[in-house]
Records
---
Amino acid sequence: MTDPTHKAVNDPEEHADQPGQNLVTRDHEVIRRWAESRGAVPAGTPDVTGAAVSPSTLQLAMPGADARADEVSWDRWFESFDRYDLRFQYREAEADGTTSTYWSLDASDREEG
């Protein structure tokens, strides 16, 4: 059974059905557009190998927020996102219609949508 408060998004032209709805995606362009429209930049701390960004520090640094990690390239951010098989949960707008900056990452082995 799908959760009506969540919607899987696989294309940048797909949007929430109503304000406050949680969306989930693995699509790089959806994530990049959402982040850039809010002035966020990819950030993280290299893992112990230095080859990828540690999944526990992978983040989107929002303007005015205290950054807890260094800015990284989108390529490096997405390489780690894919390597650790994550999915991006987010909202386009809050229930009151205001622009949302809510997002989180979790393991993609959970059901989408």
---
Amino acid sequence: MFDMMKMMGKVKEMQSKMKEVQAELAQIEVEGESGAGLVKALVNGQKKLIKVDIDESLVNTAEKEVLQDLIVAAVNKATDEADIKAKEYMKEHTEGLMPNIPGFDLGNMFNA
């Protein structure tokens, strides 16, 4: 027979594990480059841009750090907005598919 309490326990366990794994993704770092290494980007496993490195031959040396920081901030802001829009879209298009069970939030399952 179907054991609802056991299923809810498994769901809670899965949600907890998902949050733990998502937090661990911040520790993963990957670098990409373009222009034969003239521009490099460092991104973590949560798809957050950590650092941009632009070769000095491409910019005014005095403003290089400011430019790099502005690029990181702009990309991360756009990524955050995209996440919000994606969650809104998912909520709008999946509403009513699952019963409203307190503590059971499917919205966080799609953040990875």
